Amino acid sequence: MSDPPVFPSLPGCGWSVTKAPRFQTRTQKAVSGRQLRIADQPYPIWSFTLTFPLLRDAHDTRAGAGVGLGIGYDELRTLAGFFLAAQGAFGTFLFADPSDNQVTDQPIATGDGATTAFPIVRTFGAFTEPLTAAVNETGNALLVTVNGVLQTSGVSTTSRFGFTTLADTIVFAEAPAAGAAIAASFSYYFLSHFTDDAMNFENFMYQLWQAKSVKFESVLP
Q: Would you list the domain boundaries of the chain?
């Protein structure tokens, strides 16, 4: 299976950008006021809302060919075409959050002398969560170290989604020794899907459009 498409990076993306982690908790309240809370998911679903106040359309030639701000640019059809190719909320894609997309020497785990496979994680403040789509800057294997020593052989990666270059697990040919510190450097995406089957585009001026709310959310591993 090939990697999902990457959400396009467009110059028309504006402020503000909303990013919201969401858990799911069941709460049962007793007559006494005491509560029983059960966490249905240990890791959050990340919801994103982007705004595009300026999307140019080079195909609008109502004022004559070669006239207007949109000539040579096509952000409208790039974004709309991406949404259409995903078939709304059906398809998945990769989103590189500009403020949250890479780590260096990320602690992965501590060896126990027996385990060979370790989930790829990233730390966000005091919270650590697994990733669904990790890859290094060049698109090759992740850079993995054991006790600070770069591993150039005996390390591979796997993906439960069957992707070709993305990974969610680091696999050693031989188990790292007990107490060995395993770390990795890589960039990563959020595997996502649109939350709605419709997207609104507003033509507010000749060759200029806007999409006030583009919403999508991450997919749990």
A: 14-95+194-218, 102-192
